[in-house]
Every structure is written in C-alpha cells, then in structure tokens.
Specification:
The chain contains two helices and twelve strands, in the order E-E-E-E-E-E-E-E-E-E-E-H-E-H. It is mostly beta strands. The chain has one domain (about 1-150): Acid Proteases (Cathepsin D, subunit A, domain 1, Beta Barrel). The strands form three sheets. Strands 2-3-11-4-10-9 form a six-stranded mixed β-barrel. The radius of gyration is 15 Å and the shape is globular. About 30% of the residues are buried.
Amino acid sequence: MLGWKESVVLSGLGGIRLIAKLDTGARTSALHAVDILYIRHRSAIWVEFDLPDIDQSKRHRFRLPLAEHRSVKSSIGTSQIRPMVVLELCMAGQRWSTEVTLTDRSDMELPMLIGRSALKGRFVVDPARTRLAGDAGETQTVQAAKKSTKQRPRKQ
C-alpha cells in the first residue's frame, strides 16, 4: 500500500529522485519537462527536454526515443497532444517500465504524476495518506535504480 504522494527514482534518467503524485483518477502518467525539442537520430525521432530541479536552480537535459504522441485530457477538461516516452521507474522497491507523457507541470505541486495504468497490478493507493513506502521502501528503490542505471545509462 502506498500513499498519494511517494518518492520515485527515474532510473532511465540517471537515477533522479523526486516526489510524485499517485493518481488513480488519471490514466496516463506525466513528467514535468520544458524546452522540448524533436530530433531525428538515425531513422527514429527522439525527444530532448529539460527536467528542472525543484528549486528551478538547475536543469538536467535528457534525450529519449519518442514512443508516440498521445492525446491527454487534463483535469480541467482540455485536450493536449503530448510526446510520450517509455521510462523506467523505481518505487517502493519495485522497478518497471511505463509510458509517460512530457508536459509543463510548473503550475502543479509535484513534478510527476503516476497514473493508474502505471500503478495497476503493482500498488494499492490510500488517498488519505502520504509516503507510506517510508525509509525502507526508499532504500530498496534507490538500490533497484542503481542496478538499472549501471545497466543502461541514458542521461545525455
């Protein structure tokens, strides 16, 4: 069981750790990204983007293959076409790959939203609580992320 706010490590992005909102009402996961560019690399399209630190003092630049464009309906009812990538997440001692859209979430409290398609079959979410994974879950998450980062670093 996890709370609606938990620590997650983005092992596919060099092991960056952040706090994410676990939202069973949202189907698709989303990551805060700015300065999004599309780049042709060999025969594929890649997405290059910045992921700012929480305090906006530093930005981390990444490049990932574009999986597709996805139409996403926001919480206020407007639709957006967003780039979607596949990211490896580590949370509460588990590691898995999931689809994540890239969008400017600067007006949101947390830089990442993890939707129900990424949570399904893995976790139950208690919307009245936060950080239920605790220190033990966080330690396992970091260890899982380190193993993954050593296997396939993708930071550009």
